[in-house]
TrEMBL record:
One of its GO terms (molecular function) is nucleotidyltransferase activity. Residues 285-306 are annotated as: Disordered. The lineage of its organism: unclassified sequences, metagenomes, organismal metagenomes. Residues 285-300 have a biased composition (Polar residues). This is Nucleotidyltransferase. InterPro entries: NT_2-5OAS_ClassI-CCAase, NT_sf. Signal peptide: none annotated.
Length: 306
């Protein structure tokens, strides 16, 4: 299934236009906050991107759940002011950030402060921005507001996972990012699966420290996916285990069809895992002419810019 997995990887990768749209939105949010908190020109130094848009492990088709995670670095005096509040300083900080953003984003669906972040929902419902106001410490970690349970100030270190990801992705020649995107597509195609992106990426990194440590060719992606589900079955939380077992059984069945030279049936099984973004092979090779030529559909053609 080399051809199909290569096409699948292209189908779920964000286009240049989509990446540019995300950049425009999160940079706009952070620039507005910079002008509200600092008396100096904006050079991008007060924003810090993390999460799937930093590692480029986000996927398409885009959904409303795919937020851009960005830190806005607040001045020390702002942190100290809200830290000294006697009643839920974190909630007060989030409310102030929300109020500043409402000055610019007057036509968005809504701007909501909750938990640790302020969420800016855009009318087109893509690339909504979750901005996390945070104070950067000398050790490169952050102190972030948590408005829940009366309010607290928590330590946050997003740079650790980013560093681990970059190291793994370099060692595996890009397989870390590709596997993460494939597994995220499985999660999006499995409505009952509650598998957080942060945990997912950590699991992918750990898996590739043991298996396929130097990467894999597209012809090996069937085995990569199957082996990951086998690994995950033995380490995942109970609440997603049944989802993992179902996916593993389908991957095994798909590989059996591949070995029987039945790519049509194999692609149907992979589609049960990944959804319509995985190409469907329309027919099996005839016994009279056992060529390697295949015909498959490309359901993501309307998205394609790459």
């Amino acid at each position: 299934m080399k051809t199909e997995f290569k096409q699948f990887a292209e189908n779920i990768r964000l286009t240049d236009n989509q990446e540019d749209d995300a950049k425009t939105k999160y940079k706009g949010v952070c620039k507005k906050l910079h002008t509200s908190y600092y008396n100096k020109s904006y050079d991008g130094g007060t924003k810090f991107l993390f999460g799937s848009y930093k590692t480029k492990t986000n996927v398409r088709p885009l959904t409303e759940k795919q937020d851009v995670d960005a830190i806005f670095k607040i001045p020390k005096e702002t942190y100290e002011k809200f830290k000294n509040y006697t009643s839920n300083g974190p909630a007060a900080l989030l409310q102030e950030v929300k109020d500043y953003l409402k000055e610019k984003y007057t036509t968005t669906d809504k701007i909501k402060a909750w938990g640790k972040v302020v969420l800016v929902n855009f009318i087109d419902k893509t690339h909504n921005v979750e901005v996390l106001p945070a104070y950067e410490k000398d050790d490169d970690t952050f102190i972030i507001p948590n408005s829940e349970n009366g309010g607290s100030w928590d330590k946050f270190d997003p740079r650790k996972q980013i560093s681990d990801f970059l190291s793994s992705n370099s060692t595996t020649n890009g397989l870390t990012a590709e596997l993460a995107r494939m597994i995220k597509t499985w999660v999006n195609n499995t409505s009952s699966c509650k598998y957080k992106s942060y945990v997912l990426l950590t699991d992918v990194i750990k898996f590739l420290q043991i298996h396929f440590t130097t990467g894999a060719d597209y012809s090996e992606y069937s085995d990569v996916v199957k082996c990951f589900f086998q690994y995950l079955k033995n380490s995942c939380d109970e609440d997603i285990k049944s989802n993992v077992e179902t996916a593993l059984n389908r991957a095994i069945k798909a590989i059996d069809f591949e070995n029987e030279d039945k790519p049509e049936e194999a692609s149907e099984e992979w589609r049960k895992i990944f959804g319509l973004e995985f190409p469907l092979v329309k027919s099996n090779p005839s016994k009279e002419n056992n060529s390697n030529t295949r015909v498959f559909t490309n359901p993501s053609a309307p998205y394609g810019y790459n």
